[in-house]
Amino acid sequence: MKIEVKDAPGQLVGALQPISEVGGNIMAVIHEWDPTLRPKTRIVQVVLEITDERLDDLIEILKARGVSILGIGEERLLMKRSVIMIGHIMHTDLSDTVGSIDQTGYAEVVEMHVTMPGINQRSSALLTISATNEENMERAMEGLRSVAREKDLLMVETMEEAA
User: Fold this and answer.
1) Cross-referenced InterPro entries, in alphabetical order (predicted)?
2) 67 and 84: one domain?
């Protein structure tokens, strides 16, 4: 479920609390904030287990609380793979590299660790990517390989694992 809440204290908790009230099980919560897209709001992705009949109750409660529901029933990100990028990562716009995955709609960077030894030295980043299935993971990886070639970055791939 993808929802939009006001960027104010207590709003996220207020949106999540009804899930347990109707008997749902929260498995993951990911929230993002981009002031250029929707100022004063947070986009929240909630992975949950809930029966269809309880989902209808939840939707009513959330709407009554002023929570905008942006999407329901999307596939979970079931595949996970890590890659190491080596090169002038920061100088070649790291956000663009991450965005190339996140903008696909079927994969996203869920974790990132960056090491920068010095301003003019190569840095390295460990990116963990999740995707909805094996085919979409491969599509995301091919896109990342293309970005790595374009930016002259070395990309070291690891094996995928279940999320």
Assistant:
1) ACT_ThrD-II-like
2) no
